[in-house]
Structures are given as structure tokens and as C-alpha cells.
């Protein structure tokens, strides 16, 4: 399958990202509407009960600012994932989300870690490194655009802001990089340039020596038997 066929547009490019964003907004609406607090369903490190946050935490947010900051990059990056990496998009989103949650559960501070920012960093990392590793000019361009739009996110994998789960960000970044290596040969890859062969190329052998083709007329002349002539001189009368 060539690159143009792999880049055919499908509805999933927008429907799945929209569904994801709608779900996290709907969960937040439920909290506001009924006065619920879902923070206890977040990742709580090194606690058996805290493992439920591996699946639940991406859908839980503390306030509208937190929710909005995750919604836009989540939609943009997941749309890029399902358009340029459709063959592995679902695996990256599901497996990557689970691994990101587990890493957060292992390395994070003892507190409830909530929000889809870990998934955002997962998508950011995968889209960024996949384009560079695959060396396809389209994907490299997407990587540069990703850096331009969200390059400042890299700083937040460090503990520079209080109350922010930098451990979740770091887990997503590492997971995305590992998945970009694992799936480097899947989907769109670097296109190998092949030179078109011309009649001039046929005049050289495999070692580059000049060897023009022998035409049929020349071959026929070589195959003709040698004709010998005998002259008999007539005696003069």
C-alpha cells in the first residue's frame, strides 16, 4: 500500500477525538451538576485501590481551566494520530494510556493524579518522535508542526509547578517515545527513491563496463559462412 492510499481520509480522524473530548467534558458536567467529586478515582501511587485510576484518571479534571488546557491538544494530537498513523492509532491510545497510568502509579508522589495530560504527552511524544524516526517527509513536517505548537510542553515533565502531576507528563512522554520505536516499521515509512532505467543504462554491465547491445543485423552477419572465391585465368590465344 502506497503513501497516498494510507493517507485517505476517514471519519474516525474526527469522530474518535471528538468522542474522547466529549466524554471528559460530560464527566466534568456530572460532577458540577450533582456535586460529585471523582478525584478518588484518580491514580494513587503504589496502592492497590489506586490502580483503578489507570483507566479512570484521564476522564477526571479538577476545574474548567484544567479541562480546557487538555481538550484542545487532546483533539489536535489524536486527530493527527488517527490520520497519519491509523494502522497503530488504537493500539497507541489504549496500550499507551494503560502504560502511562502504570508508570505514574509506580513513580509518582502519594497523591491522587487526575487528568488527560498524561495521554496528551503520550500523543505528543509519539507524533513527534515517529516522524523523526520514520524519516518520511510528510511525517517529519508533522513533527515540526507539533514542536511549534506544543514544544513548550516539554518543560512540564519537570517539577517546576506545584500541584501539577509532572510524573504523569513524564510517563506519557517516555511511553510515546517507546511506542514510536516499536511501531517504526508500521504504516507510512521512508520512501526509497528508485531511478528509472533508460536505454543508455543498458549499454553498461553490472560492473559499469561499456557493453553496447548487439543488434540482430550484426548477429546475422557474424553467422554468415565465409565465402571463398577462386580465380581461373584464361590463357591467351
From TrEMBL:
For biological process, the GO terms are: proteolysis
Top-rank lineage group of the source organism: Bacteria
List where the protein spans the membrane. 12-30, 67-85, 92-108, 114-132, 139-158, 164-183
The record gives the membrane topology as: Multi-pass membrane protein
Keywords linked to the UniProt accession: Hydrolase, Membrane, Protease, Transmembrane, Transmembrane helix
Localization terms from the record: Membrane
- Is DNA-binding tagged as a keyword? no
InterPro entries listed in its UniProt record? Peptidase_S54_rhomboid_dom, Rhomboid-like_sf
Residue ranges constituting the Peptidase S54 rhomboid domain according to the UniProt record: 54-185
Q: Do you know which Pfam families this protein is assigned to?
A: Rhomboid
What is the protein's name according to its record? Answer: Rhomboid family intramembrane serine protease
Q: Which organism is it from?
A: Tenacibaculum singaporense
Amino acid at each position: 500500500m502506497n503513501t497516498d492510499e494510507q493517507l485517505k481520509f476517514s471519519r474516525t480522524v474526527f469522530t474518535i477525538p471528538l468522542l474522547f473530548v466529549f466524554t471528559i467534558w460530560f464527566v466534568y458536567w456530572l460532577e458540577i451538576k450533582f456535586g460529585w467529586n471523582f478525584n478518588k478515582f484518580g491514580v494513587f501511587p503504589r496502592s492497590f485501590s489506586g490502580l483503578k485510576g489507570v483507566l479512570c484518571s484521564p476522564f477526571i479534571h479538577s476545574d474548567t481551566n484544567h479541562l480546557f488546557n487538555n481538550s484542545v491538544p487532546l483533539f489536535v494530537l489524536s486527530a493527527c494520530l488517527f490520520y497519519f498513523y491509523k494502522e497503530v492509532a488504537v493500539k497507541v491510545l489504549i496500550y499507551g494510556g494503560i502504560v502511562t497510568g502504570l508508570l505514574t502509579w509506580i513513580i509518582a508522589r502519594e497523591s491522587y493524579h487526575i487528568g488527560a495530560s498524561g495521554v496528551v504527552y503520550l500523543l505528543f511524544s509519539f507524533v513527534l518522535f515517529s516522524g523523526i524516526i520514520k524519516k518520511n517527509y510528510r511525517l517529519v513536517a508533522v513533527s515540526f508542526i507539533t514542536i511549534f505548537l506544543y514544544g513548550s510542553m516539554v518543560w512540564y515533565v519537570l517539577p517546576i509547578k506545584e500541584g501539577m502531576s509532572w510524573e504523569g507528563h513524564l510517563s506519557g512522554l517516555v511511553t510515546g517515545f517507546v511506542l514510536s520505536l516499536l511501531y517504526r516499521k508500521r504504516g507510512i515509512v521512508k520512501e526509497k527513491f528508485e531511478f528509472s532505467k533508460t536505454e543508455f543504462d543498458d549499454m553498461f554491465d553490472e560492473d559499469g563496463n561499456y557493453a553496447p547491445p548487439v543488434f540482430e543485423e550484426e548477429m546475422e552477419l557474424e553467422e554468415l559462412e565465409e565465402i571463398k572465391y577462386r580465380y581461373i585465368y584464361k590463357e591467351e590465344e
